[in-house]
Amino acid sequence: MNLRIPPWFFGLFLPVLQFCCHPFSAYQLQDENGPLGALDLTELIGVPLPPSVSFVTGFEGYPAYSFGPDANVGRLAKSFIPDPFYYDFAVTVTAKPTTHRGGVLFAITDAYQKIVHLGVALSEVEDGSQRVVLYYTDQATRGRTQEAASFKMGDLTGRWARFTLTVQGPEVRLYMDCEEYHRVAFNRSPRPLTFEAGSGIFVGNAGGTGLTKFVGSIQQLVLKSDPTAPDDQCEEDDPYASGYGSGDSTYEDMEGVGEVKKFVEKIVYTVVCTHTYTL
Questions:
Q1: Reduced to 3 states, what is the DSSP secondary structure of residue 230?
Q2: Which of 47, 124, 164, 257 is the most exposed place for a label (fewest CB within 10 A)?
């Protein structure tokens, strides 16, 4: 049988090689105009995949990562996040929870994993709805994790949620379907967030903080330094167009996905990665 490789294969494989085998962080990447200012947090997952994390077919047939209840993805924040952090920024998400408990999509914690400096989570479903929550704990309020903003949405369980949060000046805004959905006032320090040397960054959980782990699929999780930049989810013909999606779209070439996954893992296992991180 001839193995048909889905079109997304090379888009999946090349970032893995770049992330695994080059000694620089995402925010250090440069283009001819300077820093890219975009951090793809799914790069933290790595290959081979950690326990309880697997490849799945995502929205519009593009690849996504499935997080089980025992998934634990994290590393030192200084290996990936600029310090100080962007004062204004955007978070773009494409994710599908599979339980009513919601959970943390990503979090940057203090060195003791007691406080979330920055993070985004989905609340537990209550009365048929749940909230998108932004955690932002600055120097003035570091005694405990601060919920800076939340936005009420429908029950997202089993559905692809695609949205962008922007933090700019004294406001946090939620965008869906490429339009502003809601905004709330945001009181914070005039200084950007800074992180301790031992701070951790986590995907699908918040370390030892006790916040609920996310169980479901994550396809897109990007931090951007410019909240006014064009949203990837709004680009013409972009598969991540904002809003809701029900179920899983199946790509026409996905009959060989199991073999492709084995092929990816076989190749990547031959790559020697010399830099590892522990929290």
A1: coil
A2: 124
Spatial CA neighbour of 97 closest among 62, 69, 61: 69
At residue 165's C-alpha, the angle toward residues 159 and 166, to 5°, is: 165
What counts of helices (H) and strands (E) characterise the chain? 2, 17
* Gap between the Cα atoms of 230 and 199, Å rounded: 30
Q: What is the pLDDT of residues 57-106, one digit of tens each?
A: 999 999 999 999 999 999 999 999 999 999 999 999 999 999 999 999 99
8 Å CB contact between 81 and 202: no
**Cα–Cα dist 124/221, whole Å:** 20
Token pair recorded at residue 71: 């998934």
For 93-125, write each residue's pLDDT tens digit: 999 999 999 999 999 999 999 999 999 999 999
Paired tokens of 86? 């962007």
Q: pTM for the complete prediction? A: 0.76
- Is there a contact between 195 and 81 (Cβ–Cβ < 8 Å)? yes
Tokens of 261: 């996954």
Round to whole Å and give the CA distance between 2 and 5. 9
Q: How far apart are CA 80 and CA 12, in angstroms?
A: 20
Write the CATH number of the domain with boundaries 38-230: 2.60.120.200
CB 67 within 8 A of CB 58: no
In the 8-state DSSP scheme, what is residue 213?
A: B
